[in-house]
Amino acid sequence: MFSSQGPSPRELAVQALSSVERGYDLLAPKFDHTPFRTPDAVLDATTEALRPLGPFDRGLDVCCGTGAGMRTLEAVCRGPIAGVDFSAGMLAQAREAHPDAELVRADVRDLSFGAGFDLAVTFGALGHLLPAERPAVFAGVHRALRPGGLFAFPLGAPPPLTSRWYWALLGFDAVMRVRNAVWRPPFVMYYRTCPLGAVSKDLAAAGFSVSTAPLTALGRRDDGTPRARLVLARKPT
C-alpha cells in the first residue's frame, strides 16, 4: 500500500500522463514508498532460490530502478555488481542505496555490455516491455552473460478467473490501453502481457535453456500450484 511518505494522487496522475522515463524520474524519490517496489518477500524468496545455484561472481540488475533487487545480487555474488536503467532519477536513488555498484543509464532494449556477468536478474520490469520488445532485451542479456551464466527473475502465476485480482489486473490493463490509445507519449505498464509460456519461448529464441523453480516461500494457490516461480534462463557453455 501507499505510505504517508509516498506520492500524492496528483503526483501519480502527472506520472501516469508522462512517458515511462519521465514518469519514473518524477516518481523516483518516493518510489520505495509505493506498492510498485518489489516486496521484500519476493526478493528474499529469489535470494534463497539462487543460493544453491551459486556462488556467482559479477551480477547485473536489468531495469534496476531504485536498486531494490541489488540486495539479492549482494547476497549471492562474490564480485562487483551493476545495474542498468533508463531513468536518471531512479538511478540516483539506487546510487544512494548502493554506492559501490556500477550504475549505467541505458535503454535495456539496446544493451551494449560484453560477456562479463555470471548472473543477471530483473524484478517487475517485464510489464514495461511490449511483447515485441522482449526478444531484443533477452538478446542483450544473453550477450552480457558469460558462457554458463544465468538470467533469473520471479514470475507470478496468473490469478484464477474467480479471483478479484484477475479482474483488477484485467481492468488496469484495459485502462492503460485506452490511455495509450488517446494520449501521447505512451506509458507502457501492463500486468498481463508476460505469461510464462510466451516468456519462455522468447528466452529460448534468444539462445537460453529455460527451466523454473517454485518459490514456495511465497505460498501456494488453492489448487496446490505455487503462487510464483523463478524463471531460470541459462546461457549454454
Automatic annotation (TrEMBL):
GO terms for molecular function: methyltransferase activity. Residues 60-149 form the Methyltransferase domain. Keywords: Methyltransferase, Transferase. GO terms for biological process: methylation. It comes from the Bacteria. The keyword Manganese does not apply. InterPro entries: Methyltransf_25, SAM-dependent_MTases_sf. It holds the Pfam family Methyltransf_25. PANTHER family: METHYLTRANSFERASE (PTHR43591), OS06G0646000 PROTEIN (PTHR43591:SF99). This is Class I SAM-dependent methyltransferase. It comes from Actinomadura nitritigenes.
